[in-house]
Amino acid sequence: MTDLVQVVYISRATFKAMPASGGVEPHVARILQQSRTNNPRLGLGGVLYYGEGCFFQCLEGEREVVDKMLAKLKGDDRHKDFKVVLQRNITERQFTDWSMKYIPTNATVKGLLARAGYDRFDPYQFDQKTIEDLLTTFRELRAQADRAIPSHAAQPEVRANESGAMPYVVAGVVVLACAVAVGWFVL
């Protein structure tokens, strides 16, 4: 029997955000690129949301592997104010086939936060219900993206909508097989 855990942590980026290139902030894109090959090897998965200088990361995997990754993440100088906001045993992964999913800022998340009474993305202010609601929203966005992108498609076209944000149904939910074994964020 496996000892699976799900951990959600938050942190603040120490880098100055730059304009998004291809829908992903360049610093985050480099981390994602570096991570791409490591998560499958480690058996880690989850989802990452980056907004307003803050990271919200759900990480799932074997307890020992997750604990080692968290220790690495805590010591990385590309972020600060690292805080675990949810940690629980699970019997199955919620983000089953994602090595790591990157969720860009989108209207669905902004709407969820507005309904919860938040005027911006600041995970340090979120209550437990909002954290759970974000995880549910990320699973729903994934399901929408899976329906919108045929499994045989190589790479979805990335287009911006009129506000400059990537639409989550077409390609706004960027599927990247990502992770970090060496370095930072299991992004």
Automatic annotation (TrEMBL):
Record key words, sorted: Membrane, Transmembrane, Transmembrane helix
- Give one GO term, molecular function aspect: blue light photoreceptor activity
Listed transmembrane segments: 165-186
- Show the InterPro entries listed in the entry: Acylphosphatase-like_dom_sf, BLUF_domain
Kindly indicate whether the keyword NAD belongs to this entry.
no
Residue ranges annotated for the BLUF domain, each copy included? 4-101
Top-level taxon: Bacteria
Q: Which Pfam families match?
A: BLUF
For this entry, the protein name equals FAD-dependent sensor of blue light
Native source organism of the sequence: Marinimicrobium koreense
